[in-house]
Design goal:
EC 3.5.1.88, Peptide Deformylase, four-stranded antiparallel beta sheet, single chain, 244 residues, alpha+beta, five-stranded antiparallel beta sheet, 9 strands
Length: 244
């Protein structure tokens, strides 16, 4: 997709028209099938701890997992999903931001053992929701405007690429899953589904804007693998450590 302001605003409007759930729209009071939920005690360890790296010998059978992730993402109208959201504690996520413009597209990108190697000083604030936070409010958090990611694709082939716009936002949302935790722990401002929908229709430029809000990946050290990061800060202390 094109990464410019006009396209972003179109994305916000279309997202609410088509009901995208992962990142943008949360399912009101309904827990999506096959998606692990943050408030389910059975998945606390899985969703709140760093995911393990995919080992070289595991790539041969990775196609089955990728297929399962895609089906779960498409079935729940998502535009991104991490492996731990379907019960697999491995460093892999999929993004499909083009579905925000054309919900019939089946295109997607696979990121295995991703590392964010570079980020811009500029940040973008966005109202996040999540398939694993069904029925929960949206939270406004910041992500880096541009990032460079080194990872492997589903076949194990390494790549390094820069991203901006919605792709960068979705990648950082999914990367948060791999680190453990979610936007609800970081955000200071929240909106209900109806309030977020109204904002997207009446003030789309406010749904995504440059700002200095709390950073979603506040605890990530650039250039280090997910499993090499320092232990996450206790969620109760996160807001105290965020810049106002």
């Amino acid at each position: 997709m094109q990464n410019n302001s006009a396209c972003w605003m179109k994305w916000v409007v279309l997202a609410f028209s088509f009901g995208f759930t992962d990142l943008v729209t949360a399912v009101e009071g309904k827990k999506p099938e096959s998606i692990c939920q943050f408030d389910d005690a059975a998945y606390q360890s899985l969703l709140f701890s760093p995911s393990a790296p995919v080992e070289q010998e595991e790539f041969a059978g990775l196609g089955v997992l990728i297929d399962k992730m895609c089906k779960a993402m498409w079935a729940n109208d998502g535009i991104g999903i991490a492996a731990n959201q379907i019960g697999v504690h491995k460093q892999i996520f999929i993004i499909s931001p083009d579905r925000s413009i054309d919900p019939s597209t089946l295109s997607y990108r696979v990121f295995v053992n991703p590392v964010i190697t570079h980020s811009s000083q500029e940040k973008i604030c966005f109202w996040h929701g999540c398939l694993s936070a069904a029925g929960k409010p949206f939270g406004k958090v910041a992500t880096w405007k541009t990032i460079t990611v080194s990872a492997c694709d589903g076949s194990g082939k390494p790549f390094s690429e820069s991203f901006d716009g919605m792709s960068a936002i979705v990648i950082q949302h999914e990367f948060r899953h791999l680190l453990g935790g979610n936007y609800l722990q970081v955000a200071k401002e929240f909106k209900s589904m109806e309030e977020a929908r109204q904002l997207a229709k009446e003030q789309p430029s406010s749904f995504m804007c440059e700002c200095s809000g709390p950073l979603l990946l506040y605890d990530y050290q650039l250039g280090l693998p997910v499993d090499k990061q320092k232990k996450n800060t206790d969620p109760s202390d996160i807001r105290k450590k965020q810049k106002k």
